[in-house]
Model the fold of this input.
Amino acid sequence: MQIFESMREMEHEQLVFCYDKTSGLKAIIGIHDTTLGPALGGTRMWPYETEEEAIVDVLRLSKGMTYKSAAMGLNLGGGKGVIIADARKDKSEALWRAYGRFVESLGGRYYTAEDVGVSPDDIDIVNDETDYVAGLWHKSGDPSPVTAYGTFVGIKASMEHLTGSDDLHGVTVAVQGLGSVGYALSEYLSEAGAQLLVADIYEDKVVKVAEDFGAEVVDPDRIHSVECDVYAPCALGATINDDSIPELNCRVVAGAANNQLAESRHGQVLKDRGVLYAPDFVINGGGVVNVAQEFNPAGYNRDLALKKVDGIGEKLLEIFAISEEEDITTHAAAERLAEERIRAVGRIQRIRT
Done:
């Protein structure tokens, strides 16, 4: 892998490798773009099979955060952290404190928060070493429920675009991944009367959702291919790829996972198949909106955060309309809206007294 070439192609500003012998910390922090403000993005803990896989993930995730913050109208840039470890057995106070010191060393260019495998309790330990954190229990807390709520709003908007109604009663939704976001999304969908098909690689999570919401359990390797109205990827990215797309049996792809498209061209493949795609960095923007409220001078306000998250539906309807009017993919339409805001603010910032 040519790291600098990859950074050039994806327009990254910085890639930071963090290693601590004592705690065993192996982490990578990616800062994509700080035009709109300091980079904000959660830290993910995952047992990547190779270091290259971790690098690719942090590059894709941090770029996605730039677009997400821009699309949500936030004055924040895009960053992300990944820790190469198993969240179920490798956590320790020493590891989190070491990571916090590396975040502190960036001097505020990057603020971290929760992501896959990381909890507010973990971030609380990171906070012992740096103030450049968000998502603390005494502030906005775990962003997962708000991410799920925004995804729920986005699914309703997607169905409204297709059918003229956002009523989800009787609508079949296949949820892939039942972590904090997937579980909360399943709850919202169940309360709205949707029929749930669910899958996860961890049996305990599947059992809980099945018992709590009467969901039908599906094999993780088949969840993307089951007959449904909405396929909602809520685990890792790149599940929409050359292998999975021909097997999709849904009308809509609308989930909370980041980087759902393995490649941008897959947006066109979905369009050609007549499958509506809700761009991931828009539909899953609720979490960053919630966390960003911590930067409000007046302090965190959950009601205001949720009110802004309600706007995800209108944003998606706007993107769907642009896609149809200009015959471009929904992914391209969403990227254009985000890039236009970054360019506009970037021009303003060049004006100095």
